[in-house]
């Protein structure tokens, strides 16, 4: 292989680090996007036998939003292997113990159970908040758009903007604002 | 042994761009071994009588040897410029078929036994525009920013929210007020 072709190979199979903000996102829908980038399915050169997967760094996994009453109803099963070793953990309990676990399991379960899955999971880095170590942050060169709109709380708007917002109605004089 | 697993994968190749500008026949030597009595050599004997001289005249670059031997089945042994030797049994072959196989040996560049062609074409330059890289269709403005950035913090093509619509209406109303004042 000539020097030029070698460099071409490095460029084509360059591993990109993506950033994904999981705040206010459904982890099961997000898993489909994260999985796609972890496995390299978004690349035109994708092939099952070639290692073309990227790295995905997920931040704010503590702020994920499960749909409906899934926090109460979703159950994670574990068995130690010993008699009576079965345990069932609710999603909210698991999230309290480890705020990265729900998302991690969602991505893990979204992929086929083959040998490659463990190695693909090694390329997924999840952080419960936005504190990412500097050596990881400096590798990141792309950001994945979130799937759902991230709402903004009223107390996060600047005060001036809130005051100047057009008023539609005047409250009646005897109305008590809670 | 036609199982794919036992065959070595190979690409179509020509030695030192053979055929571009000039053609060098790659078959060096061919030995036809046959028996003078045995029935399995009949086609070979027919070919030697009727077609061999013609073949040798047409291909002056190929050395043709004949080797009669008693009570053995006929074979063709071909030797190529690259050192390959191909041995081929032509037992009970009619003379037409022997000529066909000889033509094949004459036109190929090496022995392809135990090989499997990965594809029926070969090119040094599979893509004119260059192979894809992750940077090919990338927005160059992303090269200088430090992540995370605000522009990619929301999904693409969001429908207009009621809040934005209200603000727009409010702006329009203000403009109209200013214009009506001017008119006065």
From TrEMBL, chain A:
Q: Which GO terms describe its cellular component?
A: mitochondrial large ribosomal subunit
Query: Key word tRNA processing present in the record?
Result: no
GO BP, sorted A to Z: negative regulation of translation; translation
InterPro entries assigned:
Ribosomal_uL13 (IPR005822), Ribosomal_uL13_bac-type (IPR005823), Ribosomal_uL13_sf (IPR036899)
Its keywords, alphabetically, are: Ribonucleoprotein, Ribosomal protein
Tell me one GO molecular function of this protein. mRNA binding
Which family is annotated?
Answer: Belongs to the universal ribosomal protein uL13 family.
Q: Entry's PANTHER family?
A: LARGE RIBOSOMAL SUBUNIT PROTEIN UL13M, RIBOSOMAL PROTEIN L13
Please give the name of this protein: 39S ribosomal protein L13, mitochondrial
What is the originating organism of this protein? Exocentrus adspersus
Its lineage reads:
Eukaryota, Metazoa, Ecdysozoa, Arthropoda, Hexapoda
TrEMBL record, chain B:
Query: This protein's superkingdom?
Result: Eukaryota
Q: Which InterPro entries match?
A: Ribosomal_mL43, Ribosomal_mL43/mS25/NADH_DH, Thioredoxin-like_sf
Q: Where in the cell is it found?
A: Mitochondrion
One Pfam family for this entry, by name?
L51_S25_CI-B8
User: Which UniProt keywords are listed?
Assistant: Mitochondrion, Ribonucleoprotein, Ribosomal protein
Q: Does the keyword Metal-binding apply?
A: no
Q: Which Gene3D superfamilies match?
A: Glutaredoxin
Write out the GO cellular component annotations: mitochondrial large ribosomal subunit
Q: Which residues form the Ribosomal protein/NADH dehydrogenase domain?
A: 36-109
Keyword Mitochondrion in the entry? The reply is yes
GO MF annotations for this entry? structural constituent of ribosome
**SMART domains, sorted:** L51_S25_CI-B8 (SM00916)
Q: Which GO terms describe its biological process?
A: mitochondrial translation
Similarity field: Belongs to the mitochondrion-specific ribosomal protein mL43 family.
Q: What is this protein called?
A: Large ribosomal subunit protein mL43
Species for this entry: Exocentrus adspersus
